[in-house]
Amino acid sequence: MNKTIKTAAIYFLVLLILTICAGYFYYGTFSLLVFINTSFFFSGITLFFTMLILVTQKGFFDAITYGFRKIFAAKQADKQLEEDPSAEMRNPSELLDPINVSPLLIGALLLLVCMLIGLVVFYNS
């Protein structure tokens, strides 16, 4: 079995158990509606953070941080004329590059699919 699929299955099971436990402790009971509500919350939060990491890894925020570094470096030019502080800083895409979020993304998408299946069952019954 592929390592990514195995890790995604583990993330899915952890998110599923977390959804069931949080739904039971928050609502005091467990039903299909409770599962739909809590799984929407957990899958949405997880998808948001994985998408944010993916966008950052692709270099979307590199130009923005470069611009801010140049602006703030210009204000500190009197203190450090010989050094360029923006040249020694790493880009956000370089900082988040070693993080592999695809298994977490797959696990969150599987939880979202379970929520959609539960939603179809809830409205058809």
TrEMBL record:
Transmembrane regions: 7-27, 33-55, 99-123
Pfam (any one): DUF3899
Signal peptide: none
Keywords on record: Membrane, Transmembrane, Transmembrane helix
Keyword S-adenosyl-L-methionine included in the entry's annotation: no
Keyword Acetylation in record: no
Sequence ranges assigned to domain DUF3899 in this UniProt record: 36-118
InterPro entries: DUF3899
Protein name: Small-conductance mechanosensitive channel
Organism annotation: Sutcliffiella tianshenii
Lineage: Bacteria, Bacillati, Bacillota, Bacilli, Bacillales
